[in-house]
Amino acid sequence: MQAARIHGYGAPAAIMLEEIDAPIPNAGEVLLKVKAAGVGNWDALIRSGRSGLTLSLPLTLGAEVAGTIATVAGATSLQLKAEDAVYGSTNALFIGAYAEYAVCSTDMVARKPESHSWAEAASLPVAAVTAWQMVVEHAQVTSGQTVVVHGAAGNVGALAVQIARTREAHVIGTIHNAGDEALMRTLGVTDVLRNEGDSSGLSGAADAVIDTVGGPSQASLVSLLKPGGILVSSVSKPDAGLIARQRARGAYFIVRVTAAALSEIAKLLQAGRLKTRVGGVMPLADARIAHEMLDGTRPRPGGKIVLSLE
Question: For residue 267, is it within any domain?
Fold first, then answer.
């Protein structure tokens, strides 16, 4: 089979298309015939050696897949079988998806929503589950609450906005580019913040802040929280001192894609309550070009980049 692999860490030029043997699933895994693979920022971190994970080279890149099951090794909680159409993630190391066949942990895949294409399904697993875990599992957003999504126009942020809206929350989104405001309105954001000055009237108004950006900008978000509110981030650990002075809570986590979360997301997709944003679809042979887009050396389309293997 063909796979997009690296033998050393570095720039996108390190990615090579190679012919290798198809992987063999172990107990608790399924072998997928890959129809599409999502291309995410975490893939660039792995390629460049900045993921913080302990990995062995050479390796096949990619964490997000959609495809049909070729082989099931052992029982699955969802009673999956050969030929079932599924989507999800490969494994806890976030590798192995850029290939004609990929092995996935059985607890990290779920049935693909019939309403969505292979490319749309492959664009979602890590980003959508990250957003789900931020809004539902950590912030535990409920009806009537006020939620601020920092980086609302990004792939994770846009999904967090929509998931919060499905829980009947009032959603405020921060954006970097004024041109993203129209998109935010279509997703259900009622207020848009373009800079820190815009937030001056929101001090102490938020039940939850969902931070998808991290870095220095995170500190400015703490003052938006009500006492007892929560700041959730998957990119930077909240400053414990700032959080304590606000009498709020902070949560930082690394996403773990689960079949349970994927199944809930599939229900929302099937019901038309979540919109996907596929920014570009290209063949597996163009994996290097896709990573040049991630790195900004080529123009990057809005939305998720997907590799198609159909």
Answer: no
